[in-house]
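Recall that a protein's primary structure is simply its ordered list of amino acids. Everything else, from secondary elements to tertiary packing, is in principle encoded there. The following example makes that idea concrete.
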Amino acid sequence: MSALQGRTAVVTGASRGIGRAIVRRLAAEGVRMVAVARSRDALEELARELPGTVIPAAADIRDPAAVDGVRDLALDRLGHVDILVNNAGVGHFGLIEELTPEQWDEMFAVNLKGAYLMCRAFVPHMKERRSGHIINIASVAGVLPTPGLALYNASKAAVVAFTEATRLEVRDRGIKVGAVLPSFTDTELIAGTRSPRGQRNCRPEEIAAAVARMIAKPVPQLVVPRRLTAQLRLMGLIPDPVKRAVARYYGLDTLFLDFDRNARKGYDSRIRA
């Protein structure tokens, strides 16, 4: 029997990609959950796929009132919430002068404010029970600044810092908090880009497996794939010329500047909708 059997959860960004994979993995582990996203149709399809396990909640996590509604629904239908997975996120790439203030606002509103609002809504409940686990899906981009990725880097670095500060704040109240940092993952978010040289993209299911591992054995941070953990730590110690050479070798110096903009139109249109 899974160590997660019988637990309850709330997962944001659940309608597609990593979020959908997380919902499926937790359902397979015996977790009942509220799945949150803006797309009601996609959530209802997921609920039909996993009957009796998934409760759909169409909501915009940028809206405090909508987030409070998700909390009320979760507590009403589940009785209590053991696990909160803040997965919802968006990304825009390009030169600083090309990206717009609206795109900046959107990334921080979804990637950071959404996670904050969800924590704000559920932490009091977890403190009252002296039990709970919060997992924020950050990104390797949060610790590896890259040309063309400045706005996304900034939003995910903020998620990493927010996660650690929250962990320190609630660790004596029975609540575990951690961040999962995926590398390139095959989702719509990286549409139009190429993989770093010699690297295999992660699958959403690998990120979902990391979330399940973190719940079963809590740690402050997990990088996916694990082999990148040591490399990321070393990047903070090596001189800048060496960093630049490494970036050129893997193609990271142009990866988010030289991409197929037409291939991203579908993603951008859905985000704007």
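The CA atoms of residues 90 and 270 lie 11 Å apart. The chain has a mean pLDDT of 95.
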